[in-house]
Amino acid sequence: MRRSLLLVPVLLALLVSVAACDKKKAEAPGTPGGGSPEDATRASLELIRDGKFDMFWRHALPPADFANLHADWPRRNEAEAPMDPADRAKFEAGVKRLTEPDAEKKLFADVRPTLLRFDRDYKDQMPLIAGVGQSMALTAIDQAKDLTVPQKRQLREAVNIVAPWTQTVAWGDQGHAREAIGILVDTARKAGLSTPDALHTMNFEQSMATWSTGWLGFKRLLAVYGLSVDKSFDSVSIDTLENNGGSAHVKITYTLLDKPIQTDATLVLLDGRWYDSDLLQRVRDDHARLAQPAPATSAPAPAATAATPGKPPGAPVAAARAR
Q: Which of 30-39, 50-59, 71-80, 299-308 has the lowest mean pLDDT?
């Protein structure tokens, strides 16, 4: 009898373990949407944090919209304006410098005089430099036409937090510079880019892998100077402010350099799963734009968008309901 009682906690632990495994299978990374507004938002942020952009898009969009995004990708690249010859030459020269043998040593030798000159001539001017940069960044945010009001508000708060931080960083520190150069070189080599054309000929999977390489390198670079992006992601808390059954409004709170920032998002319920309304609307608008036949060609238009039944391509999704 006593032995049977001792088995109870073991069996309970096994049941909890199995249940956890089943939950992970049901909500594997990249599963479209979330079972609740909070779950959908949290999963998106975690996938971005980890640089899993392929999985992020699979999670952030309903399956049909993701299929459209995937199919549209080559057309998105084609729509990019060709690079100016001078900019192309600079790009290729920069990549070559970052990826050639002994790039770390050569780059550090080149930058070392600049570091010494910074400490001698510009270190005391950092408050002025930071102030000018802060003003320029805030102006650019205000003038941005592709940002929502919450996004602008969030970026303004971030700039106002980061600007004072830049005045405290030892930008002339040679140890930090050497480490940062190593990260830049490692990231460039992993990206495997030699010409700007490579960016426009990538398929969706290749683009997501390149984005991931760049993002993870960027996070490592900021960490060298004391700004942990992962710490901000890990501090996130999500609260649902309103849920009417078809759409929900959530508040997202996190810290940047230990200072709180709040933003919000609207999610919609489609086929029992929750998705970010602004992101979904943007993807559908882009698909509708790319689906329009080019004026100089008679090629057939791509398949129609996967908008909610009864809505035209690019129609607002904020009022969508479960079907």
A: 299-308
Number of CB atoms found within 10 A of residue 275's CB: 26
**Model pLDDT for residues 218-230, shown as the tens digit of each residue:** 999 999 999 999 9
Q: Please choose, from the candidates 52, 8, 4, the residue with its C-alpha nearest in 3D space to the C-alpha of residue 31.
A: 52
Cα separation, 287 vs 268, in Å, equals: 19
Helix axes 63-78, 204-224, angle to 10 degrees: 80
Domain ranges of the chain: 1-71+233-323
Q: Specify the pTM.
A: 0.79
Q: Quick one: tokens of 133?
A: 């940069």
Predicted confidence (pLDDT) per residue in 62-73, tens digit:
999 999 999 999
Distances (CA, A) of 93 to 30, 87, 193, 299: 37, 10, 12, 38
Q: Do residues 144 and 181 make contact, with C-beta atoms less than 8 angstroms apart? A: no
Beta strand residue intervals within 127-258, DSSP E = 237-243, 247-256
Q: What is the CA radius of gyration of the chain?
A: 24
- Give the Å distances, CA to CA, from 243 to 148, 155, 312, 321: 21, 26, 25, 12
